[in-house]
Amino acid sequence: AAADNMNNDPRHTFDNLKGVLLFNCAGGMNNKLRNPGKLSLSSTWDEWLLFVLSPVLALLDALLKTESFANWIFSRTKTPENVSQTLRNIYTDPDRVDNELVNDILRPSEDDGAIDVFVATLTGDPGRGPVELLPAVRPDVRLGVLWGFEDKFTPAYGPIARYLDSLSTTAPDQCRFERVTGGHVLHDDVPDVARGWLDRTLAWAFKE
């Protein structure tokens, strides 16, 4: 991770790095492998959900490591109909989902080794999330985060969003957090809003 390298690897100190701008930064692609730790009444809803679903998810991981099941689910996932419907659920404006977008997403699924990437994404180590990584970032590096109110995949009031929102309150010189009307793919769903935010936040990040 860049944050780890920034502090621990002298070859990659990122001395010129001024800021990091993020869209809907929720965590790894495979958060089911995260250990929620000891649960309590104060645990977040996703920690409880992960605990409840962990046996089912463990079974799914085991099945995905068998070639026949992996091929079966991959072939049913990479259809134009499935991808189109998934995107229409992600975008706040379904009309932005056209054949060109669907084909662009599907094209890598025909590459050699595509199924291996698919399985690795669903079963591999997700890496560390924002809560673990941010303490490793240099304090002079500014962090900007934009989140969509209508994001169905990484909720705007989920635990990571709340953490980053609170960070913008406790450390406003280091972190800026903003929620806007939009979904999961803000740069494509509401490009004018995203571009305006990028311009403002880049100016702030490079401010001396």
TrEMBL record:
Protein name according to UniProt: AB hydrolase-1 domain-containing protein
UniProt superkingdom: Eukaryota
Gene3D superfamilies documented for this protein: alpha/beta hydrolase
GO cellular component terms, semicolon-separated: chloroplast
Biological process terms in GO annotation: chlorophyll metabolic process
Annotated GO MF terms: chlorophyllase activity
InterPro entries according to UniProt: AB_hydrolase_fold
